[in-house]
Amino acid sequence: MSVIDFHSHILPGIDDGSKSTEMTMTMLRMASEQGVDVMLATSHFYASRHRIEDFLARRRRSFERLMEVKKDFGPELRLGAEVAFFSGMSRADRLEDLTIEGSRVLLLEMPFTAWRRSDIREVEELVSKRNFQVILAHLERYMGMPENKKWIEELLEMPLYVQINAESLLGWRRRRPLLKMFERGQAHFLGSDCHRVESREPNLGKGRAVLEKKLGKAFINAMDDRGSRLLRIGGNTDV
Fold first, then answer.
1. Residue range 195-224: mean pLDDT, rounded
2. What is the C-alpha to C-alpha distance for residues 51 and 26, in angstroms, rounded to an integer?
3. Quick check: 44 and 80 in contact, CB under 8 A?
4. How far apart are CA 218 and CA 80, in angstroms?
5. pLDDT grade, residue 56 (50/70/90)?
6. pLDDT over 90 for what percent of the chain?
7. Residue 181 phi, psi (nearest 5)
8. Which distant-in-sequence residues (6+ apart) come within 8 Å of 23 by Cβ?
9. Which residues make Cβ contacts (< 8 Å) with residue 178, sequence separation at least 6?
10. Comparing C-alpha atoms, which of 30, 35, 67, 8 is closest to residue 220?
11. Which family does the entry's similarity section mention (predicted)?
12. Tens digits of residue pLDDT in 106-163
């Protein structure tokens, strides 16, 4: 059973996250001090900007340069992507190459605009027809958009997972509805969504501390177990 950061921009020089190997090493040290065992390296992927093969090549180069310095230091890194939703993605080729390595787990970022029924249908098809284990990234960031309320409710009825940013648990006003989501089984995993050192830093430990204080150690253990099984066997867990 591992402590997993389900969302990070830890790879240097590939997106708006870490700008250098040195910064990444500092971020890894911070995460390690918080007890993180595994970080999912989920660099941004935008189909409108990137060809999959180009993205994969840049990601591999960044990872290999980092590993020359990192070696066995700090949390294990699992390569993946934060895939921005795009129209037609449920029929797109090579999405499997963007999943978390060794799994069918796809970290999906929904648009920060009004959603349409066709968007929700595409997510449903990613799960039901493509058999991806979809994790919705930082769902709480959309909850303040009234135009998407009914669509969020529909998504929460699907057999998928929800990732919440640790930062969102640190303020009491936002914390309460998110804790209820975790209690009801509508939120499943935490991610730091870390980008750098001076802001949007690795903070999974702070979010986990809130969950443990409010929901108990057994809840944290169950979350860690669920995440570990999901990544190890590629999806034979129940939401």
1. 95
2. 30
3. no
4. 28
5. very high
6. 91
7. -65, -45
8. 12, 196, 197
9. 140, 164, 168, 169, 187
10. 35
11. Belongs to the metallo-dependent hydrolases superfamily. CpsB/CapC family.
12. 999 999 999 999 999 999 999 999 999 999 999 999 998 999 999 999 999 999 999 9
Inter-residue contact 107 to 83 (CB < 8 Å):
yes
Burial of 34 (0-12, 13-18, 19+ CB in 10 A): buried
How far apart are alpha carbons 98 and 92 in whole angstroms?
A: 12
Q: Can you tell me which residue has the tokens 């890894």?
A: 28
Rg (CA), the chain: 17
CATH of 4-232, one of 3.20.20.140, 3.30.470.10, 3.90.470.20, 2.60.40.1120: 3.20.20.140
Domain regions of the chain by residue span: 4-232
Angle CA 192–101–70, to nearest 5: 65
Kindly report, residue by residue over 64-89, the tens digit of the pLDDT: 999 999 999 999 999 999 999 999 99
Residues 6+ positions from 51 with CB-CB distance below 8 Å:
none
Q: Where are the alpha helices (DSSP H) in the chain?
A: 21-33, 52-70, 117-128, 149-156, 172-183, 204-215, 217-233
